[in-house]
Write a structure and sequence with these properties.
Blueprint lengths: L3 E11 L18 E14 L2 E2 L4 E8 L9 E7 L4 H11 L10 H7 L3 E2 L3 E3 L2 E5 L4 E6 L3 E6 L1 E2 L6 E2 L2 E3 L8 E11 L11 E11 L2 E2 L4
Parallel strand pairs: 5-6, 5-7
Antiparallel strand pairs: 1-2, 1-15, 2-3, 2-4, 4-5, 8-9, 9-10, 10-14, 11-12, 13-14, 14-15, 15-16
């Protein structure tokens, strides 16, 4: 099994209410799961292949909760990635060279047997974890925007975090409000002012790297 690590940031938006019941081992808000996610890699490697400065993303949809399976998934990899980097990111995002259930990518891939062809496109993104502000755009696939949750009375920014000491994606995620608009093969119809999360990524084939 090849060693790999990814260090960077993620912005994710799903159709659940703020907080997302899935984070607490409960069923999704309306029983289904639809998500658009983008990742910025500051530095990383897969064997001897460097992944520094790359972006990757995916869009996915499940008819029920993720753990019930039968989902659709399409991966998008930065068009600037070399053939070796493309192969590396494809392997990581489909659970390759990863211990069983060690990362969210392993789980999402296992629960989404209906995979569409991977796309190689420009991925434009800006992710501010601390500020809970971000956007992402993949031409012909999706656009995503997220901002701090606002107090409905005063309009003041509301800050909340989820702390998962044994999580397979992050240790702490900042909560936000997100909206995704899709134009590709997988259509997301419920992601409007819904759950969004920002998190620092420190992952390997063994899971979250707590020392990072």
């Amino acid at each position: 099994m090849k060693n790999w690590e990814v260090h960077g940031r993620e912005l994710a938006n799903c159709n659940c209410a703020y907080g997302c019941p899935c984070q607490f081992n409960a069923l999704p808000t309306d029983g289904t799961c639809e998500a658009a996610v983008v990742y910025e890699i500051d530095h990383g490697f897969y064997g001897d292949v460097k992944l520094d400065g790359l972006r990757t993303a995916f869009i996915a949809k499940w008819p029920g909760a993720v753990h019930e399976g039968n989902g659709q998934m399409q991966i998008i990899i930065d068009e600037s990635a070399s053939p070796a980097q493309r192969d590396a990111l494809q392997a990581i995002m489909t659970g390759g060279d990863t211990n069983d259930m060690a990362t969210m990518w392993w789980i999402y891939s296992a629960m989404a047997p209906n995979k569409l062809e991977t796309l190689y496109k420009p991925i434009d993104s800006a992710i501010d974890v601390e500020g809970r502000l971000g956007r992402a755009s993949v031409p012909g696939v999706f656009e995503l925007e997220a901002e701090p949750i606002k107090n409905p009375i005063t309009g003041a920014e509301h800050r909340a975090r989820i702390d998962l000491p044994n999580g397979f994606e992050y240790r702490i995620a900042e909560m936000a409000s997100g909206t995704a608009r899709t134009s590709g093969a997988i259509s997301l119809e419920k992601n409007k002012g819904s759950y969004a999360q920002f998190a620092d990524l420190h992952l390997s084939g063994s899971g979250v790297l707590t020392a990072a």
